[in-house]
Amino acid sequence: MKITSKGQVTIPLEVREKMGFLPDTEVEFTISGNTVLLKKVKSPSKRSRDLIARMRGKATVKMATDEIMALTRG
C-alpha cells in the first residue's frame, strides 16, 4: 500500500467491512512509538460539543445573533 501525494491511503475492503468503516465514518489517529492506530470516533455529538466549547467566546464581531442570521439568509 502506498500513500498518495495528498497523504491518502485506501483501507482494504475487508478491513472496512470488518470494522464498519462506512462512508462519512469519523475516525481518529493515535500514535504510539512507531505505530499508528486508526479507530472510529465513538460519539460525533461529543466531538461537536467539544468543538463548540472551544469556540465559545472567540468571536470578535459585535453583532447580535439576529443580525448575523439576517446576513446569512440574504
Q: β content, as a range? A: 15-25%
Order of helices and strands, N to C?
HEEHH
- Whole-number average pLDDT? 87
Low-pLDDT runs: none
- Mass-distribution shape: elongated
- Biggest sheet, open or closed, and with what strands and sense? 2 strands, antiparallel
The number of helices is: 3
**What is the spatial order of strands in the main beta sheet?**
1-2
Based on DSSP secondary structure assignment, what is the total number of beta strands?
A: 2
Radius of gyration equals 19 Å
| Class inferred from helices and paired strands | alpha+beta
End-to-end CA span: 48 Å
Domain unit count: 1
Q: Into which percent range does the helicity of residues fall? A: 25-40%
Describe what you observe in this structure:
The chain is of the alpha+beta class. The chain has one domain. 36% of the residues lie in helices and 16% in strands. The protein contains three helices and two strands. A two-stranded antiparallel sheet has the order 1-2. The model has no long low-confidence stretch (mean pLDDT 87).
